[in-house]
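In response to a reviewer's request, we include the raw inputs and outputs for one of the modeled complexes. The two entities were modeled together in a single run.
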Amino acid sequence: MHPIAPAAERTTRLAGTRAWIDWQAPADAPVRIAELGVGRSSFAGGGEGEERCVALVGIETLGGGKVGTAGKRHVDGVAGQRLRYRSHRQSASGDVHRLEIEQADDEAGLSVRSIIEHRDGIDAFRFRHELTLDAAAKQPTPLAYISSFALAGLPWTSDARLWTAANPWSAEHRWRAAPLSGYGLHDSGMHRYGQRGTKNRIAIGSAGAWSSSEYLPMGALEYGEGERVLLWEVEHNGAWQFEIGDRVGGLYLSVAGPSDPEHQWHHYLGPGETFATVPVTVVLSDTGIEGAAAQATAHRRALRRPHQDHETLPVVFNDFMNCLMADPDTEKLLPLVEAAAAAGAEVFCIDAGWFDDDPGSEPGPGGVPGWWDSIGAWRESAKRFPGERGLAEVIDRIRDLGMVPGLWLEPECVGVHSPTADALPSAAFFHRDWRRVSEWGRHQLDFGNASARAFVDERIDELIARYGLGYLKFDYNIDAGIGTDLNSDSAGDGLLSHNRAYLVWLEKLLERHPGLTIENCAAGGSRTDQALLSRLPIQSLTDQQDHRLMPPIAAAAPLAVPPEQGAVWAYPQPEFTDAENTFTLASALLGRVHLSGRIDLLDPARAALVKRAMDVYKSYRHVLPTAIPRWPLGLPAWDDGLVCLALEAADGDW
Amino acid sequence: MLTWRREERIGGVHRIAIPLPDLGPAHVEVLFAGDAADPRPAWDVQDGVLEMDLGKLDSVLVRLSRRVDVSGAVPAQYRPVA
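The model returned the following structure tokens for the whole complex.
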């Protein structure tokens, strides 16, 4: 460690291959980022003087207040302002370079270690912070907001545009770019009268258990057309927020996980305890949003857990979409298994309903079929799979035809009519004010609870062993709300604990079953975040049922999901024209193919079309894991009549 | 590169143009268009633009290959127009 702080007037540079960060450690202020950039492009220069800066780590505590009139803005929290530089060090391991900066508030006993990592050849920096309270502290520190990334001095110029991605159900990945005034931020001119800014902000975030049901946990600032882009991404499967506001003539950006005002989160940091922020990655580009997409894609590939599925990209048949719609049985499945194998599918996944005796096609009260609120025991329905061999008859046929068998589960949910709802201890479930949370006929398991984890582990291990499963689709069809306040400091803290425990649980499951492929799904794309994408190899992008509405989703997705991970439904039908079947098949061909539809009812010509599409896909899919996305017509709007996605392969082909 | 046209209310076959200024001369190969054996005509990338004839509900997957000739020569149809 370097024991002496750099002088305030001297900046210290963290240099990547092309991107860089200049940071400062003043004697009378917390550490801050002075500037960052890529190549000759810099993201600084807006605003003047000391007041434009924000702390590297913005920290607010319950009742601790802020310095000055920040209003709702998450800047200038007193706890963060009291930090002072202590030391720093740089290290490298392989192609990963790390800067660690230590700061402390000796009076409060609070120390903060900031970890900034970057990789050779990738213009991105990953930020996270660890807060530790001195073991001798007399009382805990009630944390209420901690920025994972904070920067001020961004230019507020007329060519600045903010990119955001609304992510509505079945119309996901709706990127748009607009001037900041288009989001409600205007230059009131008040900084010329000694004020720091308008006290207003653009705030985008997600509260609750679906991390991306309203917006993708991403954003970007672009200057000019095809020029400088600063893109950020919250790598978290729960609550998050980013905000942009004006500050002394420039802009600030603060990106964080859950907070007190937005997510009912606070956490009591006890003596000797450490709290880690959610990670945030910042990508820098001097070639516009496409350049940022290329760097973000490279960073996601470098960061994720390796899995053979990333390289092999098998065609998955799933019996749900515009097919059996959660009403499988032996009689319906066997013809589909034959048809899927003939079409070239390599995985056959039996979707929802396999565990429930009630007919799936007749919705009950609340508009949901019987299986909806009976999930959670994860035992096959003898009614759907009669005979001595039961479900194994179908599974064995899948395997006999050379496909990997898979099953659908919602491991975090237990239906209110499931025997599991009574079998597990009360503490295994989310609660609010001592009442067990019920959401649309389900309870939410708390994976921070050992009983909940042990139960799901036992059921999944048993299913894998019994049926020889190689593929599991993990769905998540409810948003269980703000969190759980049972055995947690706050509802938001309960959710955060569950989110993190779920990630650890996934990693242990994959360690026990290294050949297992797990698909991430949350009613389609309602949990499209890098916390899950870095652990699970395949992501369901959407539940869109209309093939004509699929292109803007499939085409835009690679800005958030590497193409080798983004699964698109292709559901050919016997009543479709050739153009319609071609349309639905083509939509999946630059990502992962989730084949569905009544392919068992296709005539020979239509079946041959499906087979040809799969054969074509297999002829080039090996280039997808290194390809980068391009949008020759720009990112698609929802109503565009013409949509185009290109993938630039490593050899230069598009 | 995958292009979708979905203009069912407009209808008909239209010539659409995809700007590809970064690509340069390239060979266009139709990989999947749904027609039997994909018999779409050989389109060109000329002046950084790919023009294609697409129906009202249509989708075409093409490979745009920069390696236009193993000998290094650029076939006439792929040479930039002066």
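As requested, we also summarize the result in words. The domain at 12-303 of chain A is CATH 2.70.98.60 (Beta-galactosidase; Chain A, domain 5). The mean pLDDT of chain A is 95.
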